[in-house]
Structures are given as structure tokens and as C-alpha cells.
Amino acid sequence: MRLRRGGAADVRADPQGPGGHVRGGPWADRATRPEASVIDLELPTEGRNPRTIDVDTLPTLEVLRRINTEDATVHLVVADVLPELARLVDLAVDSLRAGGRVHYFGAGTSGRLAALDAAELPPTFGIWGRVVAHHAGGPRALSQAVSEVEDDHEQGARDAAEVQPGDVAIGIAASGRTPYVVGALRAATAAGAHTALISCNPHTPYGDEVDVHIGLATGPEVISGSTRMKAGTATKLVLNSFSTTLMIRLGRTYSNLMVSVNALNAKLRARLVRILTEATGLDALTCENALAEAGGDTRVALVSLLGEVPAARATVALEESHGGVREALQRLRSA
């Protein structure tokens, strides 16, 4: 975990050094504007993979085996960064409980993965507008490559204008230095937010500017520089783990059951009745009636059934518990 507040890496403190140069980062002599348009062949993801030098000479099955062998290393890479990821989850839990939000900032593949993760949280966990994704190039860049926008440092800063003190801003960049992402993170820092960087460059100097750097050592790709492959897979695993653990810690699940989905149609109602029967051991009719009394809110129905209280009392207990099912039940039992 790299702390910026109060230390030499705090990019807000004493910005002008001797001779008027800007302090606080590796772009100091360029007024903090990154020159990322030049590919750095020393980046871990840009090197040539010695295990795939001859990949274009191999039969189809062997090409697939080489790719699969490389992919098999990714889960070990993610395992190495779990302590840092846990710190990031805890920051986000505190922020959301205090009324803050989590912001993802990314470009290209990284931005698309972030947008996918944020989009899946409302239907899965019933949490709306609290985890938001900002993608370089906007909606158009989600469905097609708009490569030039990732170099826009100022656009990243503009997109971070809605970040508030106490929010958590997470930049996602395989290289660890994408100008759009760094611009957003620096603006978020200035706004008083907590910041994190998810990269596939463990030694990026920009990791020193954030609260938490999750540096994934995925190494060179099967095809040099094609970071949609191992780097993208590792990033997706980290985002899955981050957002799922965040929702669990916020009490948006009960056991391993998805209990924060509202019954908006017949199919969902049937699924949620089944979840309630599994969670409570009660019959389907009792659970269906409780779900109806709860207005289709599964958590209210669950707390009502397990706590043996009316739906209105269950609703109050959940509100007093930041929406957490187990905490709401503990409140009822200790009342």
C-alpha cells in the first residue's frame, strides 16, 4: 500500500520546486503531461514472450495450448496482490457506508472491463449509482476502438470533476501510465478522494501517487503488447473479486445467496422465492407471501421471516444497518 497523504509523493503539496519545475511525479519536467504515445518496450506487457516466439508456425491445437498455458498463470498473479486488494475493498466499504461512491476510470480494454463490472452490480446486488465507470471516449469507445482518447490527460481530469471528498477513484491501466487515467486520479486526489491504481506494471512510478497500487505481474503476452489477453483477464478477475467482496462486506448477500434483487417480473419472483426457501427453510407459499408484503424486496422479506417481524420493522432494521441483512438481524435479536 502506497500512501500519498503527508508524504513526499503527495502531488498536491508544494507543487513548485526549484526553478519553477512541477514536483510530485515522473512527468515533472513536462509539467505533469505524460508522453505515452511512444511505446516503451521495457513495459512488462510489451516485451516478447519467449514461450511463443514460434507461435505462427504451430498447428491450431498447439497455438491454443500455448495460450491456455499462459492463461493458467493469471490466477497466481492475482493471488499475489490479494493483501492490496483487501485494503482497497476496505476503503470502498467505508466510503459507501459514509454515502460516498466508487469511480472507475479506464481506456480501451481496461475501461470496457470497468464499465462491464459497474453495469452488472445493480441487477446483481440492487445497488444503483454507487459504483460508476468513466471510459475515455465515452459510450462510443465501449463498442469500438478510439485509441487516441487515452492520451487526453485533461479529459481524465474533466471526467473526474464529479468525484467528491471521501469517494474512491480507481484507475485501471495495463501500462500503469495511461494519461487519461493518471489525469483522472490526480484530479480525484485534489478533490480529497481516496485513489487506487490497477495495473499490469508493478513498478510503474505512478503507483506512488495513489493510496493503493495493485500491480499485476502478468508479464509479456502471447502476442506482444496485446493486453486484452492476460492483462485483460487479470484485470477482470481483480474487478470481479473487488466488487463482489465489496457487496458481501456491505451485506448485499446472505450466506452465498443473491438477496438484493427486486422481484420485477414473474421469472425473478420465482427465483427469489426459491432463494428465500433456501435461506429460511420455510415453504414456498410462506416465502411468496412475505415477498409480496415486502413489496418485492428480498432483503426485507428475508429479515422479516428470520427475525419474525413485520415487513415495516424489517425495513427499519435494514435502514439502521446500512442495508446489511446479518447486521439487521443482530439488531432485531438484541433489541
Automatic annotation (TrEMBL):
It catalyses: N-acetyl-D-muramate 6-phosphate + H2O = N-acetyl-D-glucosamine 6-phosphate + (R)-lactate. Residues 1-29 are annotated as: Disordered. Residues 92-252 form the SIS domain. SUPFAM superfamilies: SIS domain. It is an enzyme of class 4 (lyase). It holds the Pfam family GKRP_SIS_N. The active site is at residues 120, 150. Pathway: Amino-sugar metabolism; N-acetylmuramate degradation. GO terms for molecular function: carbohydrate derivative binding; carbon-oxygen lyase activity; ether hydrolase activity. Transmembrane segments: none annotated. The keyword Ribosomal protein does not apply. One of its GO terms (biological process) is peptidoglycan turnover. InterPro entries: Etherase_MurQ, Glucokinase_regulatory_CS, MURQ/GCKR, SIS_dom, SIS_dom_sf. Its EC number is 4.2.1.126. Keywords: Carbohydrate metabolism, Lyase. Belongs to the GCKR-like family. MurNAc-6-P etherase subfamily. Homodimer. HAMAP family: MurQ. Specifically catalyzes the cleavage of the D-lactyl ether substituent of MurNAc 6-phosphate, producing GlcNAc 6-phosphate and D-lactate. A lyase-type mechanism (elimination/hydration) is suggested for the cleavage of the lactyl ether bond of MurNAc 6-phosphate, with the formation of an alpha,beta-unsaturated aldehyde intermediate with (E)-stereochemistry, followed by the syn addition of water to give product. This is N-acetylmuramic acid 6-phosphate etherase. The lineage of its organism: Bacteria, Bacillati, Actinomycetota, Actinomycetes, Streptosporangiales. The gene is murQ.
